[in-house]
Amino acid sequence: MSASVSPLAPKSLPEVPPVPGVAFATAEAGIRYKGRTDVLLMAFAPGTTVAGVTTRSRCPSAPVEWCRDLLKKGKASGLVVNSGNANAFTGKKGREATKLTAEIGAKALGCKPGEVFLASTGVIGEPLDATKFAGVLEATAARLSGGPWEDAARAIMTTDTFPKLATARVLIDDVPVTISGIAKGAGMIAPDMATMLSFIFTDAPIAAGVLQAMLDKAVKTTFNAVTIDGDTSTSDTLLVFATGAAKARGVRPAKDPADPRLRAFRHTLKAVMADLAEQVARDGEGARKLVRVHVNGAVSNKSARRIAMSIANSPLVKTAVAGEDANWGRVVMAVGKAGEPAERDLLSISFGAIRVAHVGARDPSYDEAVVSDYMKSDVIDLTVEIGLGRGSDTVLTCDLTKEYVAINGDYRS
Amino acid sequence: MSASVSPLAPKSLPEVPPVPGVAFATAEAGIRYKGRTDVLLMAFAPGTTVAGVTTRSRCPSAPVEWCRDLLKKGKASGLVVNSGNANAFTGKKGREATKLTAEIGAKALGCKPGEVFLASTGVIGEPLDATKFAGVLEATAARLSGGPWEDAARAIMTTDTFPKLATARVLIDDVPVTISGIAKGAGMIAPDMATMLSFIFTDAPIAAGVLQAMLDKAVKTTFNAVTIDGDTSTSDTLLVFATGAAKARGVRPAKDPADPRLRAFRHTLKAVMADLAEQVARDGEGARKLVRVHVNGAVSNKSARRIAMSIANSPLVKTAVAGEDANWGRVVMAVGKAGEPAERDLLSISFGAIRVAHVGARDPSYDEAVVSDYMKSDVIDLTVEIGLGRGSDTVLTCDLTKEYVAINGDYRS
């Protein structure tokens, strides 16, 4: 595991206030790690709605399948998250473990197992011994409180080098409501899987369907626009819970996706998601630089996304950034291999504000020294103008360093 | 540049006999490297036919566009290959450079520029100064001979750690004909591009269209089944030249793709291509292990190829192999992210002959020690049974080591 905190980590953790209707506590269930918390138990006020997005993997983990099933109802009473074991590729045993975990959680919280959401992150293929939760969750339920949120963020970490939290306030019916979230990033420690888990909470009263529509739209440009190494986890899970507690303060429930009162909320939710997603990129294994890949002038936004991902996932581009080398030739290569409409003689490429290539050739004003100096920055903006249309997109990634290989390949030595 | 020869290099170079109708010589044009040959000039007997396959990149190099144009005629009199500069993303200047190179080559060989094929590998985005070829190619033309082939293989190397040659003999009309080839691999040294170049030669008399049909089929399971890091070069070029010199020994020209006399030739050509392709994988930057990814039971061969490529290009799978870790969980992840039909509960995964996962869970007989011992081998066979159909495929790759990052990211330090 990478011992030191990522140099790209936020300088300080945000002050996250309690979210009315949300109580939680953490514990050490000893799933895999020793001397640290590895389970998070949360309880939600009656009437809490939920929306979610899960991995696109064709081999999802047992908890992912469990959540997909529960999301159909859109009602949540509790959440149990464990780190240390992903309960993925565990077959029938895995499904039994999720059922047992939900039953133990429901007993501890005094609710139905069908309203207890689950997420697991950690080693894959190892059966998860859910019996370990038995005593633990009941004891944890006795300690439920509205904070501190850092404890929640820490309990779900695997190889993350820092806890990930974000919070914001926004007005609905002139009443301030809170949106707060935690995430764990694509940190990996063999034999663990990369997994992105994020849980967001608000006291706003919003119908599940409305929440889901907002989430589906916001995830495209936030969590789905982050790639560390192009490897999709079996367990990625993003859940948003709305307790509705703000009703007591006069906020009328939002049941219509077109409800104009949600405009500010929608933007704020997206901002919180973008904040957490960027923290995930800033904590990519071995990351020394945050890379923002901007693609403009593609034939469509979809095409721009594919080109941006081709660049962001290119080992050659990522190693060049690690080497502080403005190697735009590799960007050309990555554009070319994306399989999307692109014409060499229309391409322009910039690093930061410095245009290095223009209409199919090196920029006449190219000055290696100036660009090399820019490449020393912590955050690299890489912009490609395709020159064919009006499609654009931005993707976040990090550089590819020896540390990445060490984290993912060296643990046996 | 990686100084030492890849541990996966063949123990010895093959004895490559002259190919009747092919003469060549190498020289130092001083394009980029010092103290080594960087240009290869070849002359072909009158009536030589040619077929070719070039990169799928949407941003091909100027020489690639030149070759595509000439391939329409299917006639070749000469070939000029240089290392040190790829003449890619060089715009109008690049097109002028190819034209001038072909003219200089044609003058040296006494043929038409439109029959001189070109390939360049090396730095991208730098204008190629073709005037450097002027005196050089004429002097080189005076030294043309049938060997030694190692010189030809060495002149086209960039960061390859060993020259790549292959040769075979096969009977047509009971007359032995030769098939010999050279290749340069996906070695990279910043700011160079990864580029795969391969040139294959035979004295068999085969019509260009027939040769092209054979090549198109054979490339799918050979060169196109190799991936080092999923990064497609702007310059990949594979050309096959048939001089027809064997006619003098009684071989009748093959003008029909269905000609039964070509059956053995077709298989032998494919074998030579497979040999060269494997040498490319064995010389991947930083490679310490050759990985053969086998996928069976997919819904189609196309689907099997996509799943195999998803595994072979996964940084997590490749770093696990580098760490000698039989991390089949990451293989599950790579199958899952391929986006092809796959069901966790039908998957089986083997490393070598050891089945580690079966029908959606860890194999009951799983023994970490036994598998870890297997992972110490130079060549790792990774087999995935999808269990849905009859589609199968095999892809070659190598592991992802710190050396790869060093070669591609460290050159500035």
From TrEMBL, chains A, B:
Instruction: Identify the metabolic or biological route this protein is part of.
Output: Amino-acid biosynthesis; L-arginine biosynthesis; L-ornithine and N-acetyl-L-glutamate from L-glutamate and N(2)-acetyl-L-ornithine (cyclic): step 1/1; Amino-acid biosynthesis; L-arginine biosynthesis; N(2)-acetyl-L-ornithine from L-glutamate: step 1/4
Q: Could you say which EC number(s) this protein's record lists? A: 2.3.1.35, 2.3.1.1
Q: Where is this site: Involved in the stabilization of negative charge on the oxyanion by the formation of the oxyanion hole?
A: 121-122
Q: Where is this site: Cleavage?
A: 194-195
Query: Which of the seven top EC classes does this enzyme belong to?
Result: transferase
| GO MF annotations in UniProt | L-glutamate N-acetyltransferase activity; L-glutamate N-acetyltransferase activity, acting on acetyl-L-ornithine as donor
Where, by residue number, is the active site?
Answer: 195 (nucleophile)
- Source domain of life is Bacteria
Tell me which InterPro entries the record gives: Arg_biosynth_ArgJ, ArgJ-like_dom_sf, ArgJ_beta_C
Under catalytic activity, the entry for this protein gives:
N(2)-acetyl-L-ornithine + L-glutamate = N-acetyl-L-glutamate + L-ornithine; L-glutamate + acetyl-CoA = N-acetyl-L-glutamate + CoA + H(+)
Binding sites annotated in the UniProt record for substrate = 158, 184, 195, 285, 408, 413
Provide GO CC annotations from the record. Answer: cytoplasm
The Swiss-Prot or TrEMBL record describes its family as follows: Belongs to the ArgJ family.
What is the designated name of this protein?
A: Arginine biosynthesis bifunctional protein ArgJ
